[in-house]
Amino acid sequence: MKLDLENQDSKETLKPPKKKKRLDTANNHPHPSRDPSSMLIDEETSAQENPSTGPSVVDVQRSITPTLPTTQGTLPSFPLPALPDAPSKTELALQGLDKALIDAEIVSSSTVIPVPLSSGSEQEHGHGGTMLSAKMRKRLRDLGIVELFAVQTKLLPFLLNEEDDKLRRLYLPFDPPRDVCVSAPTGSGKTLAYVIPIIEVLSQRVVTRLRALIVLPTRDLVAQVRETIEVLSKGTNLKVGTATGQHSFSQEQAQLVQDQSSSLQGGSSRVDILICTPGRLMDHIVGTPNFSLQHLRFLVIDEADRLLAQSFQDWLARVLAATRAPTTSGLAFEGALDPWDFDTVVPDGLSPTFLQAARPEMTPSFFLEQSVSSCQKLLFSATLTRDPGKISALDLRNPKYFVVQGSDSKEVFVSDGQTSSVALMDVVMEKFSMPATLSEHMVVTDTSQKPLIFFHLVNTLKVTNALVFTKSAESTTRLVRLFEFFEDELCRASTSLDRTRLVVKAYSSDLPGAERKLILDQFKKQEIHILVCSDLISRGIDISHVSHVVSYDVPVDMRKYVHRVGRTARAGKVGDAWTLVEEQEARYFKQMLRDADHLDKVKRSRISEKDLTPLVMHYEMALTKLKDLYSRHV
Ligand SMILES: Nc1ncnc2c1ncn2[C@@H]1O[C@H](COP(=O)(O)OP(=O)(O)OP(=O)(O)O)[C@@H](O)[C@H]1O
């Protein structure tokens, strides 16, 4: 059995140019599946053709142009006015671009700094440019982290500046810190790039207050980041809490707030760091007495593009408002907290900014300046948006952008006297970087053969640690059943004693939280070999041993593709990503890759009928069993 890994797309570029077709999104979307694993349910679905949209603009113009009488020989002919060339996509993208993005610092992914061994003294300059305390360096080395990854080499010095130790202060009301936006490939170590500085700055606190808020899109990611923080903050006395809705609201309230009975303007937090999903965060802002964001020193928005796309209860505007000092009529947004009665304000426990707003007479007279929130916003994503509308909603303060390149391209792009690196242009054009250690492949298949092709790949490539993405929870369940029947058949027929039966499980939003956690833990321990899931865990989840990612159903857009394939090839390890593309989806999928300048990175493989022959009988038996199973349930 062999896979033809030759890149077929390079051949396509040699063909004569085809007549340009206008892209019609409706027509280019993948057609509904006719995958046999879904035949019992999807049988009725049929592809819809778009109705004709009538005559083209050119046709209409032609039809209304009057026929003039011939005046040949009497009038001189003048050149017709010509339209200027339309600006290119690149020129358009550069227009009105945020200055902060133009000034972005581009970081090569190969930049690393060693984490020097601790010499014992906290004050010595033995940090080797990492700006880390001796305690943190020791902790990192104990955990096997001996060098900082590219994104960390820039972020740590920026957030923990050595020359000016002001950045290690908890409050900076008159000289607030700059906000930060980071675009770096999947698996490049963005989590530690914010977790380490938070622990370094907060570990010197005396009183527990809510000083760091980390917002993530899913419960699974909240649990993952909590684990990282707990491991790294061991021995610091920092308290970490989560709010995801997994526990009852009152349970969460009791975990987050010390005293809910009296009205404490300074808040009453049990935790220094809160990791949460936006929905549950809103519930606490609105409904938990003495839950206050006035002491926030850090607000992290991880997977920022995904979270900024969620307008749930206008969560971002409300969070930002809750970090700002109240006006005389209460906090700057509706329905958050009761308005302040300024006569009863007690200075104890208020942040400097809230204190100045409430009791100006208590602020030293030489501080004429208005104090502002000390909260520093840190945004992270492998697919950071450049959408000005979304970015402006964040009200960023003198933001600094860091862009980590996926590869070491040093090329420079010049436009209208403006010089930008290729990496910066990639962010501007939303062309996302991939890990350098990732190999990408696609197989175009007839729909009816897709499951067989998938089983063939698993067997030929001897896959034992894979994440497989489908389009829905329902397709996940069906594929897992078919795979199990197929494994039964294969094991029964196998004469070889060393053939291990592959354990495959579904992971979907249909499962209760506790079961999802159990399945993820089993997969991490490699007790499950193949985890089939929907896009629920396509973002952020870090499982280091994933050697293969298979998109059994094509991803709907490039962002989804980037996050799915990024579950492998993490932290410098190699990994393979395969996408199974049904014939009618191929044009759309390839166009998606082409638009992202990524088509030539994905090798096209062909699998011949001959290669599939040894599996056909087992596959057909499995398919029959699946049909029986579903007909019993109808
Ligand atoms: N300096 C380092 N040395 C060794 N391993 C590291 C280092 N920094 C991070 N890692 C490991 O790299 C893996 C990927 O890191 P992380 O999950 O932060 O990636 P990410 O950039 O957030 O990816 P994604 O965009 O997919 O969320 C983790 O297992 C993490 O522990």
List how many beta strands DSSP finds. Answer: 19
Termini Cα gap:
39 Å
Number of domains: 3
Find the CATH topology of the largest domain.
Rossmann fold
So what's the CATH class of the largest domain? Alpha Beta
Pick out the low-confidence regions. Answer: 1-33, 39-68, 329-339, 410-419
Shape: globular
Give the count of helical stretches: 23
Percentage of residues in DSSP E strands = 5-15%
According to CATH, the homologous superfamily of the largest domain is: P-loop containing nucleotide triphosphate hydrolases
CATH structural architecture of the largest domain = 3-Layer(aba) Sandwich
Structural class: alpha/beta
Please compute the radius of gyration using only Cα atoms.
Answer: 29 Å
Question: Which ligands occur here?
Answer: adenosine-5'-triphosphate
- What level of helicity do the residues show? 25-40%
User: Order of strands side by side in the largest beta sheet?
Assistant: 1-10-4-9-8-5-7-6
Would you give an account of this structure?
There is one protein chain. This protein is α/β, with parallel strands linked by helices and 634 residues long. The protein folds into three domains: 20-49, no CATH class; 123-325 and 370-405, Rossmann fold, CATH 3.40.50; 435-633, Rossmann fold (3-Layer(aba) Sandwich), CATH 3.40.50.300. It is 34% helix and 13% strand. β15, α20 (513-524) and β16 form a beta-alpha-beta unit. The longest helix is centred in the last third of the chain and has 25 residues, at 609-633. It is globular, with a radius of gyration of 29 Å. It starts with 8 loop residues before the first helix and ends with a helix. The site of adenosine-5'-triphosphate has 20 residues, from β3 and α9.
